[in-house]
Amino acid sequence: MELFALFSTAFLVGLSGALMPGPLLTVTVEESTRRGSGAGPLLVLGHGILELMVVILLLFGLGGFLTHPGVGRLVAVVGGVVLIWMGQGMIKGARAGEVQLQLTGDAPANLTVRPVWRAVATGGVISLANPYWLLWWATIGAAFLTQAARLGAAGVVSFFSGHILSDLGWYSLVAAGVAAGRRFISQRFYRYLIMACGIFLLVLGFLFILAGYRGPLSV
Fold it and tell me: InterPro entries given for it (predicted)?
């Protein structure tokens, strides 16, 4: 019962975080219009690999390092720069007509579909670029992990499984919804959508940099 309670709690807490708009949600929308419903699981795979690495580091006592104000500020600034770079790339591609909506499983002749590894890597990079993601794991995530570790390896597995399944479920649902609606979206609307996603990442990037310069972040 303890393992099930831990799994359920981790799932619900993880889902509450996944439901909040952020960089990963924005990239999921953008990638789903190109790749289809498979974009969600691929992005979450990269996200999950990164989170698994953080869990291992926390188990080895790196929580104090992650909560150091200097680390948080550095991640905020570097992450902001990465988001700005990705955002301006989206905007530039949309304005130049270099991005087009993929309506079927096969890519149009003039559209280069991103390789699978790039979608997976993007899931990890976009997560690492979000300083609030790292702060969550250094505080709330570390607290949950401490409780899970008391139940041994089974507790850690239950906690991580519940957490990552919440991400997988939500982003897969978002990707499937976007993919299902692609046939009703015009190329012009698609370009505006990508530009909007790019602008959102730009704004987040500047906010992260500003937060990094102002001082320690808070959840």
Answer: LeuE-type (IPR001123)
